[in-house]
Amino acid sequence: MKRLILSIASMALIAISAASITSCSDNDNGIYSTLYPNALVTVKPVNGNSFYMQLDDNITLKPVNMTTPPYGNREVRALLNFNYVKEDASPYNRAVWVNWIDSILTKPAIPITELQPSVEYGDDAVEIVRDWVTIAEDGYLTLRFRTLWGLRGRPHSVNLATGVNAEEPYEVEFFHDANGDTPTHYGDALVAFRLDGLPDTEGKIVKLKLKWKSFSGYRWAEFDYCTGEATAAPSNDILKMRPAIDVE
């Protein structure tokens, strides 16, 4: 089972910048701060020797200052700080200068029948944070979540299960295992799950229903979802939690 490690720098930047994200423009002239992420993208390698980035369902980005795929042959979700540049973007939509890029833990959603008993994949409480990076797009469900961590930073494990409701094929459940970590403080982390195991929506927008165990019991949220495309942010039943404290 893959382990989750809290990305301190990334989450600190997200906490600071979440309320101020704006679209880049050709007139930025380097004024836009390079400290904070201004995009969430899918990094897509091409033939092992180049890559492009999917910004949303309509826009692909060509990095003019990078050629080698930063994560090898792995397709991953990532936080990005970039500027548009006036250079040839073919065969993609826009050319960009990458100031920095930071990958997010990216893993497949798993059919519930392939998971071990709940005692092994975890039933520790977690909150899903309503935020610009909590979104269903490009065939992924990306989540910013908040939970209790220990001072020693023991790795936590997370999974997303499909097939949890025979009558609702687009219902999924988030599981969190603190692996015995002694809780001392709240902190945030990011994870992205590939949804290619879900039935194809055939171009239609459906409701993707997310279930998780929160600190106040089980909760649900709905996302607009279309196979392989960017859709809307989650519904308002995800409550914005207080800012993360003492993130390590």
Written account of the structure:
- With 248 residues, this protein is mainly beta.
- It folds into two domains: 86 residues, Beta Barrel (OB fold (Dihydrolipoamide Acetyltransferase, E2P)); 120 residues, NigD-like, C-terminal beta sandwich domain (Immunoglobulin-like, Sandwich), CATH 2.60.40.
- 6% of the residues lie in helices and 40% in strands.
- The chain contains two helices and 15 strands.
- The protein has a five-stranded mixed beta barrel with strand order 1-2-3-5-4. Strands 6, 8, 9, 10 and 13 form a five-stranded mixed β-sheet that branches. A five-stranded mixed β-sheet has the order 7-11-12-14-15, with no helix packed on it.
- The longest helix is centred in the N-terminal third of the chain and has 10 residues.
CATH class of the largest domain: Mainly Beta
> How many alpha or pi helices?
2
Strand content: 35-45%
Biggest β-sheet description = 5 strands, mixed, barrel
Distance between the termini: 23 Å
In CATH, the homologous superfamily of the largest domain goes by the name NigD-like, C-terminal beta sandwich domain
- Cα Rg: 18 Å
Number of domains: 2
Question: What is the residue-averaged pLDDT?
Answer: 81
Give the uncertain stretches in residue-range form: 1-32, 232-248
Query: Secondary-structure element sequence?
Result: HEEEEEEEHEEEEEEEE
What is the percent of helical residues? Answer: under 10%
Strand order of the largest sheet: 1-2-3-5-4
CATH topology of the largest domain: Immunoglobulin-like
